[in-house]
Amino acid sequence: MSGPAGVLVVGASAAGLATAEALRRKGYTGDLTLLGDEPHVPYDRPPLSKQVLAGAWQPERAHLRTREVLDALDARLVLGDEAVSLDVANRTVHTAAGRALSADAVVLATGVRPRTLPGQEGLRGVHVLRSLDDALALRGDLLATRRLLVVGDGVLGAEIAATARGLGVEVVLTGPQAAPLAAQLGPLVSGLLAELHAENGVKLRLGAGVDELTAADGRVTGARLSTGEVLEADLVVVALGAVPCTGWLEDSGLVLGNGVVCDSRCRAADGVYAAGDVARWHHERFGSLLRLENRTNATEQAGAVAANILGADQPYTPIPYFWTDQFDAKLQIHGVLAPDAQVSVVEGDPAARRFVARYDRHGQPTGVLGWNMPKQARLHRQQHLAAPTTGGTA
Amino acid sequence: MKITVDEDKCCGAGSCVLAAPDVFDQRDEDGVVVLLDAEPAEHLRTAVREAADVCPAAAIALSEA
Ligand SMILES: Cc1cc2nc3c(=O)[nH]c(=O)nc-3n(C[C@H](O)[C@H](O)[C@H](O)COP(=O)(O)OP(=O)(O)OC[C@H]3O[C@@H](n4cnc5c(N)ncnc54)[C@H](O)[C@@H]3O)c2cc1C
Ligand code: SF4
């Protein structure tokens, strides 16, 4: 098998590990190094807001692979050391501990970090949720609290609200949209989600953004909304989206703009690629730059990067996909659900909370959503979304 | 090659079915993975390896026997 003499992957999580695995699966036998700043072996993030936060899983269950499987990968795993700069011409990464790691191909898979509110740092009782350590810290505090305020009405905020409610905590969910995930899912489905949360005792204070957190003696006491209203809480989780971890690349000369900007091959420069949440690449069929923050993209994009490192020269043109679990609802979202799309229920019944909806735009299906119908949603995806249309919004 | 699946981890993505439809299916009721063939023939193994690697829940484990 042809290919570079050495590959260095920065970021030892979903996309980083998947790059290494895909390289080996495709027959690459050269040197392979995986560098990550966290002390943990690669673990999965989706369970953090679900099983791990709920306490249903011990943290080890979220590990992506067993020790044996990791060993069989025959990769050097450098953990607990942070990349601080990249020399693109020499493809050399310098680390906080003083290492200089060089390779013929470098893959950037450093993911994203949570956005925060001004003044949040250093305030006790305020959490974000991105890492395993975040999840354990939040769980610890949740068990000792009465009132939780979740700031953010996106997928992460809604999941945290649902899980915390399951732990018996009083939960208020706040955010600027009319219903949780309204921008992603449109009025019909987000309306159903709002109902589901309300039924399960989550208090929804939607339609107004948070201006600032309120605090006393260095500890958070709640948040002030743009309307002036103050919501009181013992504990606050800020889930306002995330920003790509590209700070360490600022002097590299790479094009950065809401992620590492790449061509359609996920290539940022000669021999430098990006995969996962941090990558913003040119999706040829959509005809635009796209950055996805979901779990399947991390592995699929890693597979595309591995193939291109080994000489495939193929564009990466996935059908986006994510899922979310909230209370008893398991949602699967394939494709693009434009907010102005026409939504029709194509199987099942929303009243029974088991259905598949198709999202059409200009008479063309662009997305499929399943509510407690994962298999059926996947079948509709195969039927309707085989070829994503050019020029669709994303 | 022997395949085991952890139903409890499966999130119903169906990526495994897309990668190796001869080996994996999903339950109609809840989308959880169904293993059609725990010891797949030689010619299916590349697809099975891919299915295991792309599973977003790390729910598929392989052992070489
Ligand atoms: C709580 C939570 C729940 C989620 N639930 C779902 C879900 O239900 N469905 C879904 O589809 N997606 C979900 N996601 C999204 C999914 O987890 C991400 O899309 C996926 O983890 C992206 O993988 P990644 O490898 O690109 O980035 P990450 O998983 O963020 O990994 C990047 C790694 O790089 C490390 N790193 C950063 N900077 C450096 C540096 N300078 N040097 C070395 N290492 C560095 C980071 O510490 C991290 O370990 C969830 C995410 C979170 C946080
Ligand atoms: S890919 Fe993994 S999570 Fe998805 S259905 Fe198959 S086993 Fe389950």
TrEMBL record, chain A:
Give a yes or no for keyword Oxidoreductase in this entry.
yes
Q: Which cofactor does this sequence's record say it needs?
A: FAD
Q: Which domain of life is it from?
A: Bacteria
Q: Where is the Reductase C-terminal domain?
A: 321-382
Q: Which residues cross the membrane?
A: none
Q: Does the keyword Oxidoreductase apply?
A: yes
Keyword list, A-Z? FAD, Flavoprotein, Oxidoreductase
**Residues annotated as domain FAD/NAD(P)-binding:** 7-302
Task: Tell me what this protein is called.
Answer: NADPH-dependent 2,4-dienoyl-CoA reductase/sulfur reductase-like enzyme
Automatic annotation (TrEMBL), chain B:
Instruction: Could you list this entry's UniProt keywords, alphabetically sorted.
Output: 3Fe-4S, Electron transport, Iron, Iron-sulfur, Metal-binding, Transport
Q: Which domain of life is it from?
A: Bacteria
Checking PROSITE patterns in the record gives: 4FE4S_FER_2 (PS51379)
Cofactors needed by this protein, per the record, are:
[3Fe-4S] cluster
PANTHER family per the record? FERREDOXIN (PTHR36923)
Function field: Ferredoxins are iron-sulfur proteins that transfer electrons in a wide variety of metabolic reactions.
| Protein name as annotated | Ferredoxin
Q: From what organism does this protein derive? A: Amycolatopsis magusensis
